Amino acid sequence: MDLMNPVDLQQQQILQMLSQASKVLLIVHKVPDGDCLGSVSAMLTRLRGQGLQAIAYCDDPVPDSYRFLPAMDQVFQASTIPEFTPELVIVIDCADEGRIGDGSRFLQGQAPVINIDHHVGNSQFGHINWVDSQAAACGEMIYRLCTTASWHITDDMATAIYTSLMTDTGSFQYANTTPQTLRLAADLREMGARTDEIREKVFESRPRAFVNLLAQILPTLEVSDDGRVASLTVTREAMVQAGASEGDCDGLINYPRFLAGVQVALLFKEAGEEIFRVGFRSKGNIDVYAIARQFGGGGHRKASGCTLSGTLAEVKQQVLGAVRSSLEPLEIPT
Amino acid sequence: MDLMNPVDLQQQQILQMLSQASKVLLIVHKVPDGDCLGSVSAMLTRLRGQGLQAIAYCDDPVPDSYRFLPAMDQVFQASTIPEFTPELVIVIDCADEGRIGDGSRFLQGQAPVINIDHHVGNSQFGHINWVDSQAAACGEMIYRLCTTASWHITDDMATAIYTSLMTDTGSFQYANTTPQTLRLAADLREMGARTDEIREKVFESRPRAFVNLLAQILPTLEVSDDGRVASLTVTREAMVQAGASEGDCDGLINYPRFLAGVQVALLFKEAGEEIFRVGFRSKGNIDVYAIARQFGGGGHRKASGCTLSGTLAEVKQQVLGAVRSSLEPLEIPT
């Protein structure tokens, strides 16, 4: 028998705690995405299927594009959650308690807290912390947990886990995609993952308001003289004009990002009276986390964000100044 | 020893012919894409590496986004191709001779013609026809040829074949993606495929003119009352205004396509005085090939195109009429 590595040990601990609990609360992060929802969908499907009382909490409602996932009717918000005293709390895809939002009150009870995550800077807030920053998505970890437990993976569970992988890797495009991720995706297809449904619901069900918003926003494109910095600006007026909601802003930052030569892409989004949320994406070697951190923001090297006060012009000047100082000087042709 | 299946036999024939030829001409289709260019890049790299004289022909120049592929300086057009009498001609990713364009003159010589393709309706125009409609991309077939030949796959070849897979499957999103495709992608990553480079060059190097064009075109979005048909229109004036070229129209049809509820997406593109090219995409069960064929067009069930004469209003009326008759009647709520 092989010696158990530490990761396996954590999985064994989690499975043992699950075997002793009959009421389990799963928690995912605010503004939920395909990874945390796919992961929680697979877990809810499994745990409820084996007769446990399992429900999930999320600060925000499940976006329309993820409602097709199994068991999403068991994901509650603060106002809808039934009376429930969990014997075990499992938090998925949250780097720290701040990501849980108001749900962090569930961490104060008697129930032990299991923290399952793949973010580099996880704050280890659980009693058991299973953090694997090599995993492309939490869905990959949930799959490993299923394998360790010898749980049969149903087509519903395969669909949920595939959704995690597909969304957190940008359809297997981002650098976090490993050979292991792709082989797992292949296995999940063979286990019955409904990949056509995932593609259609997640990537091909944009509301018309998104196209309207894009049409409003693209003319705000600004590119620096050297072509290395590009930005878009979303005002509240543009949102109203387009009939758009928060979710429709998803992916807007990709438009400056995918321009040839751009190293840093920015999205300035009016969040309130003289308050702007700034999104940063890096396409080269620039560490945008280091820039966002200067303004009290967070994220990681390739994708970060922060919030700033001031007029749009003031905010732009501050942010562009910081971005410019982080760029390598251009070589002057001799 | 296993009995050889017919596909293996064709590969053996191809490898035998390659072993007897010292001058090989590879041909790919007009308006070349990532699949045919990735496939030809892998073949050129291998054949030239083993000392053969191998060059490639394409009617159109290699788009900027694919120039990073190895050996692209050996892909010539009619005006640039050196004097060359091939002993063997290999045509890749062409369903029929029409797709080769002016290059079809190379099929009239003494050299035997090998036809490697994955389109359903391939016209079998070669002396050897290796057509596998189950392959997600020709790159998958080239990989199998390498394996059959026991050729070492260099990181350059892996990069080229990965580009084929990634582009012809829409980043592993389309229904042609199989478990085998994903496992092959995993293997290619381990063989050194430069996936970050592929992503950046192919998907993240759009010119600014593309964003300008998109901003011009999105306001032309029209959606039918029942939400099942959506279209965009590209006029020559919009192209000029945006400073855009033909290649910048790539992907525009995705914007009506990814709207929720849309079953048929259309792109009307002004190609000349009262001449319009019409692109069709199907998201549901509608066979858009059947529609395009009514107008003398071609393609397949999910993606087709045709060319029509008339004013924009006339062309729209004709096409929308045909699309409407192909839609199932809506159920009337009782």
TrEMBL record, chains A, B:
InterPro entries in the cross-refs: DDH_dom (IPR001667), DHH_sf (IPR038763), DHHA1_dom (IPR003156), Oligoribo/pAp-PDE_c-di-AMP_PDE (IPR051319)
DHHA1 domain residues: 240-324
Residue stretches making up the DDH domain: 23-163
One GO MF term attached to the UniProt entry: nucleic acid binding
UniProt protein name: Bifunctional oligoribonuclease/PAP phosphatase NrnA
Pfam family for this entry, one: DHH
Lineage: superkingdom: Bacteria
